[in-house]
Amino acid sequence: MGKQISNSEQQVSYLKDRLQMFIEVLDSIEPETTELEDIDRLIQMMDDLELKMEQFKNSSKE
């Protein structure tokens, strides 16, 4: 695994990068040909992003 991200600037940068990846995936989807697996993958990406935000939030309280 990679190093733990502990400073707030790195955390914000990480979240911005992940959000940008999500937006790029979302932009690349063709509504007419999108399958359930594609939607599930987007939901999983958002869940992962939310989890990481919570982890960062909790680590900043410690």
Structural features, described:
The chain has 62 residues and is mainly alpha-helical. Helices cover 76% and strands 0% of the residues. The protein has helices at 8-28, 36-61. The longest helix has 26 residues, at 36-61. It is elongated, with a radius of gyration of 14 Å.
Helix content: over 70%
End-to-end C-alpha gap: 22 Å
Structural class: mainly alpha
Can you write the helix and strand succession as a string?
HH
> Number of helical runs?
2
Question: Features of this protein?
Answer:
elongated, mainly alpha, 62 residues
Summarize the structure.
With 62 residues, this protein is an all-alpha fold. It has helices at residues 8-28, 36-61.
How would you summarize the topology of this molecule?
Blueprint lengths: L7 H21 L7 H26 L1
Helix pairs in contact: 1-2
